[in-house]
Each structure stands twice: as C-alpha cells, then as structure tokens.
Amino acid sequence: MNTSATFSFQWLSPMGTSVALFIIFGLMGLLFGIGIPIISRRAPQFRSIVTSRQADARLFGHSPEELFKQDPILETMYYAKTDWLSGMWMGFGLLQLGLTWFGLRNGQHWALWTLTIGDIATAFYSILVLWPYYSQGVPITLFDLPPVFLYPMILIPIAAVLGWIGLR
Fold it and tell me: CA dihedral in degrees (64, 65, 66, 68; nearest 10)?
C-alpha cells in the first residue's frame, strides 16, 4: 500500500489525470448543487422535471410550465425535489473532492475504490432515472441528458483505470 511518505504524486501522470477527472466530477457536484436552485427560480424557461424540457414534455404530455399551471402543487414538489437533490449534490461534491484530494492524491488504494464504486452507483441510478422514458418509448438523445448523467458513464471508468495504473 502506498503511503504519503513514499508516494510521489505528479499531475502529468496517469494518477494526475485520474485525480483531475475525479476533481472535475466533484466540482460538477458543487456547481449543480449551487446552480440548479438559482437557475430554476431565476430562469424558469430552463426548468426541466427530469432530463430535458423536450423529453419531459414527450413523457408527461405537457411542458413543465403547462403542468405547473394545471396543478400548482407540482411546482411546489418540483422545488422541494430540486432543493433536496441540490443538497445531495453539494454533499456528494464535497465528499468527492475530499476523497480525491486527501486520499487518492496521496496514493491511497481505498480512496480509488471508494470513488470508483460511489461514482458507478451514480451512473447506475442515472440509468434508473431514465427507465420511465425507455419504458414509455420516449426517445432520449445525448442532448436530453444533463452532463451529470454522462460524465460518470464516460469519464469515471477512464479515471478509475488511470488511477489503478498510477497506483501500481
């Protein structure tokens, strides 16, 4: 097992790239946690219920604005869900940053495994969130998915492999 006394971290290495990718995902969590509640309240034209405004309208039969006008309690539920998820993203982002900076950057194997398993769980649940769209035959394009859906599915496996190479 590597320890901070014997492990030499370098940014321009597989481990450095792995750390950078995990840090980016943690920063995305912070950005979503801070930004989504602000954007949803100040720029309602960008509000979506789950994925994108277009895909949500195809699934639910109406745009978010129309649904909120038809039943105002849905808008209250939307803001409660948005605030709750934003808090989860903030906590996730902070944990991701802490594990990456204080564990993985110092060559700790447990940090790589914890980050990888946690981020794979995020990707798995992102797929579950999309299930209603698929089961109802609603097409989802890459443009319908927020970056927080795509990042763990595409770049986290790369970050995990590079981290594993860097720890060898």
Answer: 80
**The pLDDT of residue 7 is above 90:** no
For the purposes of burial, counting CB atoms within 10 Å of the CB of 157, is it exposed (0-12), middle (13-18) or buried (19 or more)?
A: middle
Asked if residue 71 has pLDDT above 60, the reply is yes
Residue 60 lies in a domain: yes
pLDDT of 74 reads: 93
This prediction's pTM: 0.86
Number of folded domains that form the chain: 1
Q: How would you class 17 by CB atoms within 10 Å of its CB: exposed for 0-12, middle for 13-18, buried for 19 or more? A: middle
Within a domain: 107: yes
